[in-house]
Amino acid sequence: MKRPLIAGNWKMNLSRTESIVLAAAVAQEAPRWPAVQVALCPPAVYLDVVSQVLRNSPVTLGGQNAHWETSGAFTGEVSPSMLVDLGCVFVILGHSERRQHFGETDEVINRKVKAALAAGLRPIVCVGETLSQRESGKTWEVVRSQVERSLANLSAEEMLQVVLAYEPVWAIGTGHVATPQQAEEVHAQIRQLIQEHHGPQVAQSLVIQYGGSVKPDNAASLLSQPNVDGALVGGASLKAQDFLKIIAAADGTVET
Ligand code: PEP
Q1: Which DSSP category does 241 fall into?
Q2: In terms of pTM, does the model score above 0.85?
Q3: Does domain 5-251 have CATH number 3.20.20.70?
Q4: 181-200 pLDDT tens trace
Q5: 169 CA to middle of ligand 1, Å?
Q6: Candidate from 40, 127, 172 with most ligand 1 atoms within 8 A of CB, to mutate
C-alpha cells in the first residue's frame, strides 16, 4: 500500500540550533503516525547535524538540490553522492524557485534526476504553472511538458523511485492554496500521463505530492483527494506544531 509522503522544504531558513530543535520535535512525534512517510529537507549545511538528530527515527532526510555530476570543478555545488553520504533518501529537484532564480530548465533537471537516481536517491521532481499560464488556460500544456521533459528517458524501474510534486507557482509562499478540485484535476492528468508512458502499475505506485501554501487547516481536504498522495510543505514545515498537524491530517486520509 502506498504511504502518503509529507516532506518539509525548509528552504534557506533557520539557524543550526533551530534546525536541531525542529528536527528533534518532528522526530519525537512523527512515529505516532506510522502510516505516513515523513521527510525533512534542511539547507545543505545543516544536513549532517539533522541527519544525526534523525538517526533511529523513521523520519527521512532530503536535500533541496543536487548537481548532475558526482564530483569535480563545480564551486559551491553539492553532488548526489554527497547527499547519500550524509544519509539523504530524497532530493528536491526542479523547485520553481530554482527554475525562476537559477535558470534551471527541464533539460538540466532531467540530468539531475538521472544523476540522483544513479546515486540511489529518490528525486522529488517539482512541476507547476504560473498564474498567467493558468489564466490563459495553459496549465496542462505547461505541466505536461515539464513532466515529460524533466523525466525524459527514464525506465519504469527508475520511475518507481521518482516522486512528483505538483506545485502551482502562484500558490507557493502566497497563502493562495489551490482548491482540492484544482489539485486533483492536475494530479489525475499527471497519473494518466505516466500511465501512457510507463503503464498502470508504475502510475498507480507513483506518489504525487501537492505543494503550495499547505497549512494545517487545508491539508485534510487536499490530502483526501484520490490522486493527492502527500504534500511538499514550505512555510508550515518551519513550525513543528503546524508540520505535525499536516502529518496527522495525512494519517487521517489513510484507509485502514
Ligand atoms: C514549497 O516551497 O515547496 C512550498 C510549497 O512552499 P509553501 O508551502 O510555503 O507554499
Answers
A1: H
A2: yes
A3: yes
A4: 999 999 999 999 999 999 99
A5: 9
A6: 172
